[in-house]
Automatic annotation (TrEMBL):
Chain's gene name: Sytl2
Taxonomic lineage from the root: Eukaryota, Metazoa, Chordata, Craniata, Vertebrata
Domain C2: 51-173, 188-320
Record's keyword annotation contains Iron-sulfur: no
Provenance organism: Balaeniceps rex
One function term, GO molecular function aspect: neurexin family protein binding
Localization annotation: Cell membrane
PROSITE patterns documented for this protein: C2
InterPro entries per the UniProt record, alphabetical: C2_dom, C2_domain_sf, SYTL1-5_C2B
The keyword Cell membrane is assigned to this record: yes
Protein name: Synaptotagmin-like protein 2
One GO term describing the cellular component: plasma membrane
GO terms classed as biological process: exocytosis
Alphabetical keyword list: Cell membrane, Exocytosis, Membrane, Repeat
Amino acid sequence: ESDTASEISFQFNKHKKTPSIGSHSSDMASVSSVSGSVLSVYSGDFGSVDAQGTVEFALDYDEKNREFQVHVSQCKDLAVVDEKKGRSDPYVKTYLLPDKARMGKRKTSVKKRTVNPIYNEVLRYKIEKMVLLIQKLNLSVWHNDPLGRNSFLGEIEVDLASWDWSNRKLNWYPLKPRSLSAVNGVDHRGVMNLSIKYVPPGSLGKMCPKNPPSGEVHIWVKDVKDLLQLRPSGVDSFVKCYVLPDTSKKSYQKTRVIKRDTNPVFNHTIVYDGFHTEDLKDACVELTVWDHEKLTNHFLGGIRLGLGTGLSYGISVDWMDSTQEEVAFWQEMMSAANEWIEGLLPLRSL
């Protein structure tokens, strides 16, 4: 079925016990820890502030240094976040979309107690012009909260393919409410073709030499179609896999890298054992696709297979957020023991 296969032991224990040899006992005390590899453009607390005001900036591309420059000048008439004190502590944040990972983020300093902040700062990206032209610039303004619950004040999105690069002057632009498509993650990132199977403990009969003493989840990553192309040479992609809540090295598996192909064929099977049938309600298989580079890997999209209840072993977790399609896929696997369930699922921004 596959040219490479990985097998990993995985045992969910709600009560700490001595793990058996060859299996990993998951510490439920850390059940709320999340695989923190992906950050949303809209991380933070939006609050109830309506977007208002304007931002002054200019865009330029330095051909000599191959550098994209965002000159953030100032903002005017921003919304007031703390009405009692009549203050906002604003800063500007930029992303190059569709790359929403940490590498794509830049931000200015925070200006305190003002709705008319002056920055005069340049946010820089080392990027090839051809790659830049297939991206969008998302520029947003935020109120900085000491406790980390930052409030969204407005944004503007620029399609860099249609930008007039002869225009290097500072211009004013109205700040808009956050875009519905970006909040809901409605952006096409490709489609993953895969099959999954659950083998309950002892279900293959005593005479079967491969009869597992504990339950197994088999994940067969076949291929991915229509990946985002972040550079002219194509995409060097691979797939990571975790079974949450465990984000340890024992849970982590990955495929080989397929080079220069937006439609990579992986044909890679991963087997996790140590499953009890009741664990399927609280576990979540996270598959993410990455573009491989020497210095850093860029997130392209992912899926989460689970029941999407928001809970894991009674604890609220934000990674139990499967879509209707992902939930239906997982439920079909749960109801059809020992059978391969095939699916074609859209990648999304986790």
